């Protein structure tokens, strides 16, 4: 939890130094929070930065010890996080 908060604060300060607007910073912070929540929900998976890429390249059955239902649940969780980021809430 503390590491996640520090990361978001660091991202905010980096954004300010890059001249981003308050809206851009808020969007980036929200996306970082959604990614952090997703990482907590799926700690055993390396998600990377681009969630859309996960959906595009994911191969069913590629995660060891999972069945079709677990694959679908994984993809649905990633889809929901991506949609949440796109909506902004």
Describe this structure in words.
The protein is mostly helical. The chain has helices spanning 2-17, 22-41, 51-57, 68-87. The two termini are 20 Å apart. The model has no long low-confidence stretch (mean pLDDT 82).
Our count of helices gives 4
**Parts with pLDDT < 50 across at least 5 consecutive residues:** none
The value of Rg in angstroms is 15 Å
Tell how many strands the DSSP assignment holds: 0
Oligomeric organization of the protein chains: single chain
Question: Largest sheet at a glance?
Answer: none
Order of helices and strands: HHHH
Cα separation of the termini: 20 Å
Sheet/helix structural class:
mainly alpha
Instruction: Provide the β-strand percentage band.
Output: under 5%
Provide mean pLDDT, rounded: 82
Helix share of residues?
A: over 70%
Shape: elongated
In short:
The chain has helices at residues 2-17, 22-41, 51-57, 68-87. By secondary structure, the protein is mainly alpha-helical.
List keywords for this structure.
89 residues, mainly alpha, 4 helices, 0% strand
Reconstruct the topology from this structure.
Elements: H1 2-17, H2 22-41, H3 51-57, H4 68-87
